[in-house]
Every structure is written in C-alpha cells, then in structure tokens.
Write a structure and sequence with these properties.
The chain has helices at about 1-30, 40-55, 65-75, 85-95, 145-155, 160, 170-180, 225-235, 240-245, and strands at about 30-35, 60-65, 80-85, 105-110, 110-115, 135-140, 165-170, 185-190, 200-205, 215-220. The radius of gyration is 22 Å and the shape is elongated. The strands form 2 sheets. It has a 5-stranded mixed β-sheet, sandwiched between helices. A 5-stranded mixed β-sheet has the order 7-6-8-5-9, sandwiched between helices. It is α/β, with parallel strands linked by helices.
Length: about 250
C-alpha cells in the first residue's frame, strides 16, 4: 500500500511539472520580446495593442537607447525583435550574429523637435538666449536622436553657445521627462513623443540640419519566437501598422 501511494505521488508530481512546463511553452508562444528605441514608446504601444487584437500574440517591450540595446543584444539578451532609431545599430547586431540580416528592413524616418514646457522657441538660435539655462538632449554617443540634435545645433551654428547648457539624458523619453519636470528649460526630442506630451510648445527642426534618422529593425535569434517576431514585423509594415506610425509623426522610408 505504501509503495502504491509513493508511485501515485510520483505520478501526480510528474504531471504537475509537465503541466507547468506546458504552460510556460504556451506562454512563450503567446508573446514576443521586443527591444525598441525609446522614441517608439507611444507608437509601438498602440501598434502592440492592435497586433495583439489581431493575432493573440502579446509584445513585451523594452524601450531604451538604440546603442545600449544593441550592446545587450550582442551579449545575448533574449529578444525576438530589435527596432532601432538608426539602421547602423541593426547592422551592428547582425554583424554580432544576434539578429537575422535577411530580415533587416527600414520601417520609418524620424524627425526631431525643440520642445519646452512654457517657453516659445521660434528658431534653434533661441536656445542660446539666457532664458534657457539647461537644454536636454539624449546622449549622442548611444542615442540616435541625441546625435541628430547635436548635428542640428552644429549645422545651425549655435553649438558653441548651447554646449555649456546641455544636460545628457540616457534616452529620448528621459530627455522629454526632464523638460516636463522642470529639470531642463527645453529639450530636443523626437516628433513621435511631442504630439502626445501634455501642453508645451515645440519647433519642428529642419531635417536638412542632421543626418537622416533611418529607423530599421530585424528579427533576432535569442528570444525563441522568431516566427511570431516576423508576424509583428509584417503587421508593423502593413497599411494598418504604418497608419498608426504616421499618426505619431513618422514617415515611411522612400
């Protein structure tokens, strides 16, 4: 009798473990992990909801600067998609073997704006005025929108006057947050975040003042759901997905 009870207990435990394992596998099939540039946080959240409604697959987003996310991917971070704010970072992760080069494609062109909570900005040269004590940009060493901001300030001829005022955020979302919280008097941010900011004033910056923000993505190898990742890419670049992206100020490559 004792032997029978032991065998029965082992069967129950084994079945429970199998059920948990099956549940984990099902969960993995029902979600994808996406490393995405911070300028995409609003647009991709809406794209994700529409994608889930259509497919039942839930995207789990990690938003950050493209350069730092690229480093994580190259070190083996388990993402299914990398959506960068600059195509060069996608090339890096493909070269590192973390993502599939055949899946690489541009998906949007980004724009930058100078934004302030309460100050009017009529031209980039205004940022040199005394009323702007601190100006926030994303760090140009690893954030494409920060690099575009630096290039625009240089091309406009105001970099020497503004450089001493600059405070560098880790990514473009933090850049906007500093300006909203009053930790900076103005910020240069992505157009995709500016329309959804509460209040504020913005100046759209001439895109001839900086290198094009060609945003690209690729399906990656370490997340374990590449097929579902490709479905997200297909949805994003479909008419339904691109319509959402346009609402956030993105234009389409070409």
């Amino acid at each position: 009798m004792a032997f029978r009870r032991t065998v029965l207990a082992l069967v129950v435990v084994t079945a429970a473990i199998a059920a948990v394992s099956l549940g984990c596998r099902r969960g993995a099939k029902d979600q994808i992990r996406i490393a995405a540039a911070a300028d995409l946080s609003k647009a991709f959240t809406e794209v994700g909801r529409a994608f889930t409604a259509k497919t039942g697959i839930k995207p789990v987003f990690t938003f950050g600067s493209s350069g730092l996310l690229a480093k994580q991917l190259a070190q083996g971070a388990p993402f299914d998609i990398f959506a960068a704010a600059n195509i060069n970072y996608v090339d890096e992760v493909v070269a590192a073997g973390a993502c599939d080069g055949a899946s690489k494609r541009p998906y949007a062109l980004g724009r930058i704006v100078a934004w302030s909570q309460d100050q009017k900005i009529a031209a980039l040269s205004d940022l040199a005025e005394p009323r702007f004590i601190k100006v926030a940009i994303a760090h140009p060493d690893h954030a494409p929108y920060g690099l575009a901001a630096k290039q625009a300030l240089q091309a406009a001829g105001v970099w020497p006057q503004v450089e001493g005022k600059l405070v560098f955020a880790e990514n473009i979302r933090q850049t906007l947050q500093w300006a909203q919280d009053g930790n900076a008097d103005a910020a240069i941010i992505s157009l995709s975040l500016a329309p959804v900011a509460e209040g504020g004033r913005s100046l759209t910056i001439d895109d001839a003042l900086h290198q094009p923000l060609i945003q690209a993505l690729a399906v990656c190898k370490n997340g374990g759901a590449a097929a579902s990742g490709q479905r997200f890419v297909d949805f994003l670049t479909s008419p339904e997905g691109t319509e959402i992206m346009k609402r956030y100020g993105f234009t389409l490559p070409g």
